Amino acid sequence: MKNKATHVLIDTSATGVAVITLNRPERKNPLTFEMYAELRDTFRAFTDDDTLKAVVITGAGGNFCSGGDVHEIIGPLTDMNMKDLLRFTRMTGDLVKAIRACPQPVLSAIDGVCAGAGAAIAMASDLRYASPAAKTAFLFTRVGLAGADMGACAFLPRLIGQGRASELLFTGRSMSADEGLAWGFYNALIEPETLLADTVVHAERLAAGPNFAHGFTKNQLNMEWDMSLDTAIEAEAQAQAICMQTGDFKRAFDAFVAKQRPEFEGD
Q1: pLDDT tens for residues 145-176?
Q2: CA angle 44-42-137, nearest 5°?
Q3: 208 Cβ contact list (under 8 Å, min separation 6)
Q4: In what order do the strands lie in the sheet with 8-12?
Q5: What CA–CA distances, in Å, run from 114 to 57, 66, 140, 258?
Q6: In terms of Cα–Cα distance, which of 11, 119, 97, 3 is closest to 55?
Q7: Percent residues over pLDDT 70 in the chain
Q8: CA distance 107 to 241
Q9: 62: confidence class by pLDDT, cuts 50, 70, 90
Q10: What would the pLDDT profile of 23-35 be if each residue is shown by its tens digit?
């Protein structure tokens, strides 16, 4: 399935992997009000799509996303009242919440510029693969705004540590690909020529796995941020007991006994 009605292209393959492409390459793929809403609604819809097993987000033309469009978003924001501003900032946060709430693993393939809201989308993904040319910047402070945007103050320190996150959020400087890899923001660096294809391969490997269980893994990663150790261990005990009732668990055991590779069906 391909959707070419907007600047957000969605291509779903037979392997159950959806590739979302931000498609405004002439401007380094900046977001518009409509693109924010469409991405949010797309990820919300994924929650109920049992045919979808993994999601890849990328940008067209050698860049990931340059953030909110200066002319189509930043300019209009300067003329909005407080009520409309809050409606907008809550919508951008809802996009991050939708990415985290969908049960499928979300992978970002990041080349070139990854800034502002683009950096937040990458941050919200489960796995991040980048080219050596990737430059990620939470540059809100450079336009007179707080680094506290789209969950960055909560999420980024958990990925790269408090001190490193503080530096990036206070200064707005770009994090190089090598820094991102060393700090744990990126899972791997891949040459740009094969970045998207290799990321899709990673997504297909996850898609071929126990999807019901993957959804529980993602849910627990979200839920256990603010749990005590005792609460987390109990929550994981309950999650694992539920997964032990699945057909995938039984098929994995039978395959092991037969010395075969298990075929997961997500049930």
Answers
A1: 999 999 999 999 999 999 999 999 999 999 99
A2: 100
A3: 15, 53, 264
A4: 2-3, 8-12, 17-22, 54-59, 106-110, 127-130, 188-189
A5: 12, 6, 13, 47
A6: 11
A7: 98
A8: 27
A9: very high
A10: 999 999 999 999 9
Q: Which two tokens stand for residue 175?
A: 């994090």
Which residue shows structure tokens 């408090």?
162
Q: Is 15 helix (H, G, I), strand (E, B) or coil?
A: coil
> 182-187, long-range: CB within 8 Å, 24+ apart, which pairs?
183/159, 184/159, 184/160, 185/123, 185/128, 185/136, 185/159, 185/160, 186/110, 186/128, 186/129, 186/130, 186/134, 187/127, 187/128, 187/129
pLDDT (tens digit per residue) in 187-209: 999 999 999 999 999 999 999 99
Q: Is the distance from CB of 141 to CB of 169 less than 8 angstroms?
A: yes
pTM of the predicted structure, to 2 decimals: 0.93
- Strand pairing of 17-22 and 54-59? parallel
Q: Residue 146: exposed, middle, or buried by beta-carbon count in 10 A (0-12, 13-18, 19+)?
A: exposed
Above 50 in pLDDT, residue 264?
yes
Write out the two tokens for 54: 């993994």
Provide CB contacts within 8 A for 144, sequence distance 6+. none
